[in-house]
Design goal:
heterodimer; A: MetI-like fold; MetI-like fold; globular; disordered N terminus; B: alpha+beta; Rossmann fold; about 25% helix
Amino acid sequence: MQIQDTLPQLRRYYHISPRLLFAAGLVALFVAIPLAYIFFRAITGGEEVWIRLLQTRIWKLLGNTLLLAATVTGGAALIGVTMSFFTERTDLPGRRVFRWLLAMPLAIPPYIGGIVHLTLLRPRGGFIPQLLASWFGQPIPTPSPLGFGGAAFILTLFMFPYVYLLSGAAFRSLNASLEEASRTFGRSNWQTLWEVTLPALRPGITAGALLVALDVLAEYGTVALLRYETFSSAIFVQLSGRYDRSAAAVLSGVLIVIAVIILWGELRLQGQARFTQMDSQWRPAPPHQLKRWKIPAFLLVAFVVFASLLVPVLVLGVWSVQALLDSETLASIMRSGSQNFGNYVWNSLWASGLAAVIAVLLSLPVALLSVRYPNKLTQAISRFCQIGYAIPGVVIALSLVLMVNRYLPFLYATPLVVVMAYVLRHMPQAVRASESALNQLSPSMEEASRTLGRTSLQTIVQVILPLIVPGLLAGAGLVFLTSLKELPATLLLRPAGFDTLAVRVWIWASEGFYVQAAPAALLLVVASAAPLYFLLRREQIFR
Amino acid sequence: MNALELRNVTKRFTSAGTPAVDDISFTLADGEILALVGPSGCGKTTTLRLIAGLERPDHGSLHIKGRLVASPEYFTPPEKRGVGMVFQDHALFPHLTVFENVKFGLKGQPAAIARETTHSMLKLVGLEKFGERYPHQLSGGERQRVALARALAPRPVLVLMDEPFSSLDADLRHEVREQVRGILKAMSATAVFVTHDQEEALFMGDRLAVFQSGRLEQVGVPEDIFHDSATRFVAEFMGDSDFLPGVVKENGIETELGLIPQKVNLPVDSTVEIALRSDDVNFDQTQAPNALVLARFFRGAYYQYRLRLSSGKLIHAFKPHTKTIPPGTSVHAYLSAGHELTIFQNGVAVGE
């Protein structure tokens, strides 16, 4: 807290280091070029392409995409806040365990969850309809997981943890005195919740909702699987099926505009709001007594955990056992074409790992600049490097396909293009992690090192880096985790034969070999759960 | 040769705004401790950072040991100035042990000598047994002393301290600052010390520099600052003074509390203000009342009374605690200074 107080004075360090500005500028340029290029291609896509698309596709896609984004965001906000309320602010039985279980669906890519729920609920041949038919002797109508309803259900189920985590942190950081003050002004518990607590949580909820909305725009696997067409899946089809790159570029341009509008809206909504704070006076608010609502609340939370975590993990587990026991399936898992299972695992690990290392290295000059010399220019560079959040994987893939083809042909059809896409898309997580690590470092550390005879470069190596390593590792972990799950950019950019776990799961599942896909999917989930566990351990609410 | 010299130093953080440091000049002799004191935002910390090389001046020049270190055209970075700094939050490196922290500034020296110096520094601050600990395992006072040892270890030409005791509890603060002053004097270190606490400045400084709004109000030994304030601000900030209006007459100054027989070098009928501290004022009930007791504050060995004069002017007076006078009592207030009072005209002290 003391650091915060003295910030404005201390941070006015002398002149911005030109070397640092140059390095950060290069990083921003690296991010800017693919983005600017796709815009350029969208605008110069040709009048007739625009007219054709405006007359045929764009409005339908716009409606579909916005409807899905709004529904999933709303649903995720509702479930996320409800869940965090129960685990953070009530005497819900087992809340310490639920706290973890509710966050873990982040390790399950929505398309894998979609595959599991699809096989369970498919109208013809699904596990549950078959079971019902055999019980009752006749087909019983069940809700279809295909189309809008299914896509909204699956995406909400696997994306609510974003809101859950951020609103949970906000609930946790609220000081007991806030609600007590409201009570002394004559508000009931219920009025306090609506008039004080939830408004104070708004920044947390909005931040979570933003992540959900942008993720829905970028989602390809789930909507393709459940046959609901959005901009992302339409661009993918244009690019992989019809090879109509002008149309893909035009659709991408529109998609980026939507994403930028959402980002801008969040900024406007959020403003300078920093409502929650934990200072030395902080003490936790006492939990509400659920009393007769205890059992219904428990069942509700248990159902969410069941559908979003237990079902996918159990089904994948059962299938995996089946696959490993069946020698024929096992053989086709272990070898397909010239590749074996070890290759997929290795490809996933090194591509995501390399992306994580590069993203963190690139984030360093940007974070150093924006934290140590905060002004309009450096903030703009930092914001700019975080734009990857808003650019769906398919769009980054398209941009790289077009650019590499034309300007960097030696990179074409190498795995390095895949890594480059991961870096571009997931840079924001690295930048944010590095910035928050640096922000926790008192500027007097650097100044002490300078007065003890170290140059600025020596200070970075001997003092700053050792102190921010945990934060950098967290950033790398996030990039690794999200790169591991990345599907559309990998599918579009990979050279022939470069299969990752995610790609293999997708290919097998779309050919209908669910059992065969299960071990790879389970491994993917486990590999994601490990870094997720360590990342969550760093969060306030899991201490 | 002066250890430190500032000439007309000015620093602005925004090109349009008022300067954070405005045309400051002073010198510091070898082995002297100078306390920069003033209310928060007065420019004292910025001055210290200018000396350290953590800020660049817009005008003026700084010399350390006669060597130019900063001017608008020339700038020596902090690592080349040979100054040691103790930070407000101590800024101990959490990834290094106490020993490594103190040794950090001894880079470039042979390892054996650096180790020996570190040992002797830790011994000097009484922490020779704590070398293997990490900063988070120390108490506030111990951390303070490590920070001092670290700053002193490279034998800097100048030690800078930015509110070094503000993070300590009141009891500890008194103890630690006495130790620190002893250590600085034992090493004959030249030091510049920033504080907002008048009492601390009077205790620590061989000389004081009083700041207000980026300007230097007065530089001098503690006694002069306290008894011979150059400006009304210094008298008010350093000594909790009240100011009694007066008019210059032939034989003294005419005030509400009677004639003060003190000569000033001003024309008759000039209006002035006289600085009064609580120990300069007394009151009794033997004469016709000219003041009302408004409040009584218990100060341990004595009471401080707040009096309202007939004109409405508030002044304060000390009395022993043996007798209490209830608020609401009408009394006769009078001056009992026994020494020359400081007289101000338009905020500036006037001599005889």
